UniProtKB/TrEMBL annotation:
Name of the protein in question: M23 family metallopeptidase
Organism: Cryobacterium ruanii
GO molecular function: metalloendopeptidase activity
Pfam families referenced in this protein's UniProt entry, alphabetically: Peptidase_M23
Record's keyword terms, sorted: Signal
InterPro entries (UniProt xref): Cell_wall_metabolism_enzyme, Dup_hybrid_motif, M23ase_b-sheet_dom
Keyword Signal in annotation: yes
Sequence ranges assigned to domain M23ase beta-sheet core in this UniProt record: 68-160
Amino acid sequence: MQNLRALAASVFIIGIVVLGAGSATCAALTRPPSGAAAATADAWRWPLSEPHPVTRDFLAPASAYVGGHRGIDLAAEAHKPVLAPHDGVVSFAGRVVDRPVLSIKQSGDVIVTVEPVDAVVVEGERVRAGQVIGIVASGGHCPPGCLHLGVRLHGSYVSPLQYLGNLPRAVLLPAVPHAWAPTRGP
């Protein structure tokens, strides 16, 4: 029992040290950056009218050169309007390989990309959150009836849900059972 308590205390202390040292990194992965120029969940809008069913979640790649899913896919009807998720400037509107792509740059080094989208805006044009920027098209990795939404922060992909306010909170569980934890009866 004494060893179990010592082990639990050690794990707790190590956790505090590790989380304390990496708190800036953890915070960057779980919520938008703070500051006047940073995006907030209040400033962002979904790129499609409701409902917003996510058909494929964000899957962070282990490195910049391996597979992953660098955004989320939303169920979308063809030819439906696509809305600007935030205020910014259109940084790209054109074809990439087999699909039409639209990117918007925002202050704070944030770039959002939607695809496949036939743009009704042009590169260099300033857009406002909620403004129609195009219509759902076809092509790319999304099957018909899909809109891909990706977000890059300082060049690295992050989950768009952290900007849209729908990222579930992480729940940390103990690594070892605690002697003081309640037990369940049969």
